[in-house]
Structure formats: C-alpha cells, structure tokens
Amino acid sequence: MRVTSDFECGNGKSIRRVAPGHWSLEEVGEKAPYCKYFCVKVEAGDDGGPVRLDIYPDPDLGEEGRVGMLAHYPAPLWFCEGDYDHWVRLTHRWPGVERYGPECVSTRVVVPPSGALTVASNVVLPYTRLVAWAARMAERGAAVDSLGKSHEGRDIPRLHLPATGRGKPIKALLLSGQHPSEHCGPLAVCGIAEFLLSAHPEARAIRERCDAWLVPMINPDGNVHGRNGWTLEGVNQCTDFAGVCDGAAPKAVEDRLLWDWLSEELRPDLSLHFHGYLGTHNFADPPCDGCYVFERPERLYSSPERLEQYRAIRDALYWDTPGLSARSRPGTLSPDMLEWGLAARFGTLVPFYEINHAFHGVQAARRKGADVFRALMRALP
Q1: How far is CA 38 from CA 102, 178, 238, in A?
Q2: What does the DSSP 8-state code read for residue 357?
Q3: pLDDT at position 46
Q4: pTM assigned to the model
Q5: Mean model confidence pLDDT for the chain
Q6: Domains in the chain and their CATH numbers?
Q7: What is 295-338 written as a DSSP string?
C-alpha cells in the first residue's frame, strides 16, 4: 500500500505511514484562504483493504494556514476509481467515514486488491483532460486555438462558437480557472460549450444571437502542479488587474495575454466568470453557491441602458440561480479584479459566479455552468 501526490493535479506533502493501513499528509497551500485543496492516490498491494487518511494543514502557513484550511470543513470529500469523469462522495460509498477535528481532517477508504483510488477535497479536472476535451469539441464544430503560452509554456485553450444568426450578436466571454483548485469552474465552462453545441432548442436560440468565446482554464500551470489559488509566479490572478484601465499591466503572463486580447480585440459585451469554494460552515441552504456584484454600478456604467442591463443580469443571479444560497447576500467586485476593468473600459456586463464544490460532482458542475448562462441570456434583450 502506498499514498502519493506525484501526479498531475496532485497536492500533498510529508506523506508518511503512521501504522499499517494508516497514513498522514499535509496539504500544500499558498496563503489563507487558499490552503484547503488536497489530492492523493491510494494504491493497494495484492491484498488491498481499508486505509485511514489524516490530512493536516500546511505547517509552513502557521496558525493562519491551520484556521484557513479547517474553516473550509465540514465538506464532503470525493474519490474516483480511475475515471476522472466520475467522482463520488466518500460517504456515498462508506457512510460516516469523515471526521473533522481541530487539527486535521480524517477519512477512511477501502482499496480493492491491486487497485487504486484518487481521493481529493473536491472533484478534479486535469489540464491534459481539458486539452483532450477541447479537441473533441473541435470535432463537433467549435473553433479551438490557444490564447497563448503560460509561464511554463503550456497552451491556454480557447474555444469560439460563432453566432449563427444574422443580427449583431452579443459577444460573450466565458472564463474560469484563475484559482486552479476550483475545478468546478472549468467544468462549468465546459458545460456551457457542450450545451451550446447540443440540439437543445434553447441552445440553438442562444447561438443565433451570441458569439461565444470560452477560456476554461486560464491558469494551466497551477492546475498541473496542484496549486490552491495562485500561479507559479506567485500571483493571485483574481486581483491582478488593478489599474489596467490606466495602462498598468497585470503581473502574470497569462493575465497579460488575456487583457491584451480582451482590450485590443474582443471587447466583450458579457463576461461570465466562474470561481469555486468549499464548505458548509455558516452557509444557509444547499447548494451554498455565491455571486459577486458591483456595490455602486452607476459609477461604472455611464449609459442608462447599460446600467439597466447590468441590474437585470444581477437580479437574474439573485432570482434565477442559487447564487445567494450560501450567505444570503452577494460579495463585492473590487477595482483590482478583471470585472472592474472590463466594466469601466468597455461597459461589459460582468456576472461573477461561485460554485460550492461540496455539492457538485462533474455533471452537476457542467450543468450549473449551462444553467447560469441560460438564466443570464434570458435576462438580456
């Protein structure tokens, strides 16, 4: 029996065998609250059997890291048996195995003889699988290329689904993956693409008036290396856009590529951005999703018509999605975020949605992406 994290999207260090069938590890965080993700493989010998895992906070982050990790729990842990398209909550297979203590999170799994399980804090979508998925979407009619190269030289997949109607289309950006451990975000954008390429009547109607551009994973290096929230350059992409309207450049190479394309070429009418988070602590109602909005949108949208459209999509988030089901109120978009720059510079409508990993497997995340996008498109003229 062995436990490892040396694979794509793996996260875990100081892995050691405490006793037969009992292992401990520390998650690898960046800075609280980006310190809750872990992903390990449990590989059995010839006999297989039960395995206990104790997951501790990253000690390099001190007390802030301990609180930052454990505050995300209780939350269901997930596993898969080789097929990353199908993740299952541990408690669906083994009821009552999870324990949430003041020092660590513990769980138990049973590994079949000569078998292996991947156990993680949430469902996982590796970069290589996203690239393969994009190739399949190209076979179904999507135009697929690269936004450019990441810090380590990986292509950043970009998909284009042109509008099929004759009128002036809504140019829509569908974006995710800034925080690499928030895998439900890329899955949501993948779900939008699959929905739009389907024969669903509403999908066909949306395609007639929407020119859709999709960037499902803007931080591929972070994904591959199993990072929690930052790039390999140590940048939190969510707050990397301060001053872009005044000529300042983002720090991360991926963000510079994104902003240059958006500001010089696309200038989207709509930008739907997906993030994710974890946990049920102090949250209200399942699925405990969240959303972010402008506190004073009238300061950013000078056109009365555009301001009214923003209020319409904001209220669609409130009433047509579960975006308030976590805290019963939205978060606030700030001047250092991409959304602020797009709204201030181009009047872009910028819904920002957070999916709670605790309640979303692969298909639920895909459908959540399509459902949120459909709700927003229904709110636009």
Answers
A1: 17, 17, 21
A2: G
A3: 85
A4: 0.97
A5: 97
A6: 2-120 (2.60.40.3120), 127-379 (3.40.630.10)
A7: S-GGGT--SHHHHHHHHHHHHHHHHHSSTTTTTSS-EE--TTSH
Give the whole-angstrom CA distance, residue 24 versus residue 62: 18
* Neighbouring C-beta atoms of residue 120, cutoff 10 Å: 26
pLDDT digits (tens, 9 = 90+) for 24-57: 999 999 999 999 999 999 999 888 999 999 999 9
Average pLDDT value for residue range 85-96: 96
Q: What tokens were used for 245?
A: 């309207």
Question: Residue 368 pLDDT more than 90?
Answer: yes
The residue type of 53 is: L
* SS (HEC) of 199-260: CCHHHHHHHHHEEEEEECCCCHHHHHCCCCCCCCCCCCHHHCCCCHHHCCCCCCHHHHHHHH
Report the run of H or E that residue 342 belongs to, with start and end.
helix 338-346
Identify whether 157 is preceded by a cis peptide bond (ω within 30 of 0): no
Task: Give DSSP secondary structure letters for 269-297.
Answer: SEEEEEEEE---TT--STT--EEEE-S-G
Give 115-125 pLDDT, tens digit per residue.
999 999 999 99
